[in-house]
Amino acid sequence: MSTEPWTDSNARAPIDGRSAFTLALREAAAHAVHARERELCLVDPDFESWPLDDGPWLDSMTRWARLPDRRLIMVASRYDTLPARCARFCTWRGTYAHVVQAYATEVEFSQVPSLMLAGATSLMLSDRLRWRGVHLSTDKEVADWREVVDALLQRSEPGFAVNLMGL
Predict the structure, then answer these.
(1) 126 to each of 38, 163, 164, how far by Cα in Å?
(2) I need a labelling partner for 112 at 20 to 30 A (CA). Which of 43, 62, 131, 160 fits?
(3) What CATH topology corresponds to 8-158?
(4) pLDDT tops 60 at residue 101
């Protein structure tokens, strides 16, 4: 994981490929700890191929979640594949349930963006199939995407329960 502070050159680096996306998520989480970001937001139609079980990313998320007054907002169309695919993340989510607010949106699957809003280290995937995206380099870009997330939240309800109960 990068231990270097976030710089403008990071913000201009394109995301091109799965490994670049994983690295971008790691850097964003590490920077969120360093910058003491109060709120992070993860948005994706289903988080199907996000590296949520990545050890260094989860380590940074743990350090971030232990800071006071933190909130992680997750928005997806569905979470049904996460428990089987991302067991470590689901365990983490259970441990830090007081920090995580997960929502299932009724917005059409194809209309849900893929992004992580984390202050100055926010990023967006514009092509989920090829893992291509950008770092959001201005406060205005982050604010514009935050408005999109707010609109998604208006058409959402709580989802991704900590404990799945069945009969």
Answers:
(1) 25, 32, 32
(2) 62
(3) Endonuclease; Chain A (3.30.870)
(4) yes
